[in-house]
Every structure is written in C-alpha cells, then in structure tokens.
C-alpha cells in the first residue's frame, strides 16, 4: 500500500514541478497577501505583531485551498480520474498519496512564510518545537480535509467556487488551534500552546481516517 502512496504522491509532485503552478502562482500570492497585511496594519501600533499568528495561518489556509483545488483539477483532466479508478490502486492509497503531495508543497510554502513574517513583521521566531509540531499537524489536517472535499465536489461545474465555501468553515478549528499554538510559540503569556496543538493533531487524525474510509466511495461517485 505504501508503494502505491509513494507512486501517487510522486506523480502529483512531478506534475507540479513541471507546471510550476505552486512556485509561480501560489507562493507569490501568499507573499503578496502578507505584504498587503503589513500595509493595512500599522506596525508602529503593535497590532501587526499581535495579529501575526492569525495572519500567517489565514494565508496558509488560502494557499492550501489553492493547492488542493489544483490537485483535484489535475485528476479531472484527460480522464485521469477514470484511469485512477481502473488502475487497481487502493482508494486509501490514492487518498494518502494525494494528501502527501499537498503536504509536501505546503510545508515548503510554510517555511518560506515563516521567514517572511520574521522579516516583514519582525515576529519573534522562538518556540521552534511547538512551531514545527503545529505546522506538521495543521498541514496534514488541511491536506486531508482538502483532498476529501475535493473528491466530494469532483465533476461539478462549480467545483472551483464550491470547494472553498465547503472547506474554509470546516477548517476553522485548525485555524483557531494553530493560531493559538503559534501565539504561545511567539511568546504570548497564559496560552497553553501544546494543548491547542493537540486539538489540531486530533482533527488531522480524524480526517485522515475519514478520508481513507470514504475516498473509495467518492471515486466511484
């Protein structure tokens, strides 16, 4: 099964490397949004510093939605989805492979964004163990939920607009938990960041299990 997971993930990553959508569109979009937030909020008042964790994860969430939408649209081109159904690969392996490819792209983007908030927002980048654990858990949650809902709206003509409408409310707990954990990592007092990180881990586990169980029915549908 894990060989099939690596096969699907490698295929999606090769497609992204050749198309360069992530590097030429998603990453510049994310950096541009961070810069616009910096212009919109006056850094002299300290508002920007206190809002940095939330702004960071809002940008990651929007960028993750674009990456998931892109991953789903690849399967709808030239009958790739039908080929996957007839390939004999386990649906759970297809789901895990597609989610792994999105995780790899988002982790690279998040690393770039951490450096960007350090430079643009002068954020105190401390608490690396908590930041790393939160990034891993939240990224898995976003990828698993996104791939699952992308399969749900596959084939619909309004999938590009419907997917964010369905996905963003569902990912609200991830946004809240990851933001609170980052606030602790950035040095805010009285916030138990590891407990919020645990909430994000729980959310990720639930959606990974749900995706493995339900993705076969979504592929057939």
Describe this structure in words.
- There is one protein chain.
- Helix 2 (21-40) crosses helix 5 (91-120), helix 3 packs antiparallel against helix 5 and helix 3 (47-76) crosses helix 7.
- This protein is mainly α and 221 residues long.
- The protein is 83% helix and 0% strand.
- The model has no long low-confidence stretch (mean pLDDT 83).
- The longest helix is centred in the N-terminal third of the chain and has 30 residues, at 47-76.
Total beta-strand segments: 0
Tell me roughly what share of residues is in helical segments. Answer: over 70%
Mean of residue pLDDT values: 83
Gyration radius from CA atoms, angstroms: 18 Å
Distance between the termini: 22 Å
The largest sheet, given as strand count, sense and whether it forms a barrel, is:
none
Spell the H/E element sequence.
HHHHHHHHH
Specify the number of helices: 9
Query: What fraction of residues sit in β-strands?
Result: under 5%
Q: Could you say which structural class the secondary elements and strand pairing correspond to?
A: mainly alpha
Coarse shape: globular
Unreliable segments of 5+ consecutive residues: none
Summarize the structure.
The chain has 221 residues and is an all-alpha fold. It is built from nine helices and no strands.
Supply the key terms.
221 residues; single chain; 83% helix; globular; mainly alpha
SSE order and pairing:
Layout: H1 2-19, H2 21-40, H3 47-76, H4 80-86, H5 91-120, H6 128-152, H7 159-170, H8 172-185, H9 193-220
Helix pairs in contact: 1-5, 2-3, 2-5, 3-5, 3-6, 3-7, 3-8, 5-6, 5-9, 6-7, 6-8, 6-9, 8-9
